Structures are given as structure tokens and as C-alpha cells.
């Protein structure tokens, strides 16, 4: 997996750097990348404080850029189908950020707004081959890649668990998606030939070896597109929390058979 990621990153990085030079007439000075993910065990479990077992994928989001000596951030995103999307918003040194249009830029703005330091104006190119709307965490890949880019640009480093939490917070606040911690966690901490067992209550994690000579993970494209902010995902999370509230427990992770039998109607 790592070799595939390395080769893919090299191609995407060159594409992003070439595009940056062509658009902004100078070279990028900072770059970062983050993968997509697939989950092996534990669906709709992370926001219930349960256990999940995701693995990083050899698909990447690459971000390159540089300061532009203005009070504005210019973002150019090259989509997997080759289309381009642009967004401009104020630097956090000049103004507080708020969600807005275009909707996709809220993922970037949320990360900038939640970055520990104020960020000056910058120019950025984003290139990704993570399939969008396919359940492989293109949004978390973008968030973590952009956060890591800001670390490289500013010199400010953030501990990995905290980084995942800040990216999750960004998605809650700006796109308005009440996601659990799993996606940002695995995208931040994925490791070669390993799945990642995450305790979503304590945020403790263990890398689980997966011998690539004996196991193959087959990810199938169902061609069913989804958009989490407009899907039933928020409803499912609310229903799980409603059930926990009726059981008078903080989350369904804490439920036992006695709790369920006691509330049987």
C-alpha cells in the first residue's frame, strides 16, 4: 500500500505543483497529502463511542501552496474528473470565517478557522484522486491534507489525535456534518500494512498488522453516490443519541442487555 501511495503522491504532487506554477506564476513552498479510507468493522459505531477498524487507501488528496501577501485565501481545486473549482475567502488574520458558498469550500474554511494559529492569505492548489461521494472519506482526506498543509506553511505542529479532533470539529461547524471521529482519525494515523483499531470513547488506538501477502481488501464501486450532509446520516446519529437518552446513558456503547430489557415496551 505504501508503495502505491508513494507513486500516486508523486504523480499528484507534480500535477499540483505544475498547476500552481501555471496559475500563480511562482512555485509552491509547502505541500501535504492525506489518503482516503475504507472501514472493515463498525458502521455507525464511532459516534456511539464504539470500536471501529478502518484502513487507509492508496487514494490521495494533495495540497500545495504559498503565502500571497494579501488578506485573502485563493483555493483552486482540481476534481478527479478534471473539472476545476475555485473559492476565495478572507484570511483569519483579517476576518472571522463563516460557512457559505461554494459549499465544498466549507471543508477548507472549517480547517482554516479551527487551525490553532491565525493564518495569513495564501494561494493553494488541491488535486485529489479520492472518489467523491463514494464512502471512502474524500471529505476527511481533504480536511487532514489541508490541515497538514497549514502545519507545513506556518511551522505550527499539532499532536495527531488533536489534529483529527480539530478536523472533525471543522466538519461539524462548517459543512454541518455531525460525523464521528473515525474518518479523520484513520486518515491522520494510517500505517503501512495495518488496519487501525480505534476506541472511539477513549481515542486509544492500536495498529493491527495485515499481511498483504495473505490478505486482499477488495473495494467495490457500487456507483451509488451520496452526500452526507443531505443524507440520512444525521438522522441516524440523532436516533442513536435519542435511544441512549431514553436508556439514560451517555452513548449506546454503555448499553447492556439489562438496560434494553428494562426499557422494553
TrEMBL record:
SUPFAM superfamilies hit by this protein: GHMP Kinase, C-terminal domain, Ribosomal protein S5 domain 2-like
One record GO biological process: galactose metabolic process
GO function term, MF aspect, one: galactokinase activity
Keyword Nucleotide-binding part of the UniProt annotation: yes
Keywords (A to Z) from UniProt: ATP-binding, Nucleotide-binding
Pfam families: GalKase_gal_bdg (PF10509), GHMP_kinases_N (PF00288)
Domain Galactokinase N-terminal: 19-65
Gene Ontology, cellular component aspect: cytosol
Entry similarity comment: Belongs to the GHMP kinase family. GalK subfamily.
Listed PANTHER family: GALACTOKINASE-RELATED (PTHR10457:SF7), MEVALONATE KINASE/GALACTOKINASE (PTHR10457)
Protein name per UniProt: Galactokinase
Lineage, broadest ranks: Eukaryota, Metazoa, Ecdysozoa, Arthropoda, Hexapoda
Amino acid at each position: 500500500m505504501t508503495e502505491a501511495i508513494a507513486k500516486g503522491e508523486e504523480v499528484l504532487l507534480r500535477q499540483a505543483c505544475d498547476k500552481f506554477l501555471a496559475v500563480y506564476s511562482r512555485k509552491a513552498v509547502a505541500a501535504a497529502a492525506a489518503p482516503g479510507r475504507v472501514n472493515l468493522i463498525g458502521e455507525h459505531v464511532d459516534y456511539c463511542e464504539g470500536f471501529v477498524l478502518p484502513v487507509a487507501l492508496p487514494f490521495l488528496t494533495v495540497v500545495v501552496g504559498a503565502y500571497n501577501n494579501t488578506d485573502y485565501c485563493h483555493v483552486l481545486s482540481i476534481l478527479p474528473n478534471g473539472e476545476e473549482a475555485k473559492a476565495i475567502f478572507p484570511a483569519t488574520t483579517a476576518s472571522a470565517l463563516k460557512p457559505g458558498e461554494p459549499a465544498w469550500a466549507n471543508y477548507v474554511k472549517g480547517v482554516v478557522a479551527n487551525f490553532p494559529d491565525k493564518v495569513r492569505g495564501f494561494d493553494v492548489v488541491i488535486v485529489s484522486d479520492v472518489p467523491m461521494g463514494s464512502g471512502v472519506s474524500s471529505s476527511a482526506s481533504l480536511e487532514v491534507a489541508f490541515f497538514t498543509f497549514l502545519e507545513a506553511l506556518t511551522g505550527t505542529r499539532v499532536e495527531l489525535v488533536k489534529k483529527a479532533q480539530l478536523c472533525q470539529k471543522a466538519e461539524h461547524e462548517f459543512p454541518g456534518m455531525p460525523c464521528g471521529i473515525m474518518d479523520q482519525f484513520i486518515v491522520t494515523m494510517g500505517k503501512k500494512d495495518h488496519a487501525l483499531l480505534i476506541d472511539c470513547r477513549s481515542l486509544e488506538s492500536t495498529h493491527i498488522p495485515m499481511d498483504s501477502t495473505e490478505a486482499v481488501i477488495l473495494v467495490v464501486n457500487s456507483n451509488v453516490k451520496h452526500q452526507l450532509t443531505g443524507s440520512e446520516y444525521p438522522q441516524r446519529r440523532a436516533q442513536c443519541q435519542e435511544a441512549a437518552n431514553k436508556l439514560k446513558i451517555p452513548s449506546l456503547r454503555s448499553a447492556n442487555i439489562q438496560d434494553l430489557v428494562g426499557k422494553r415496551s
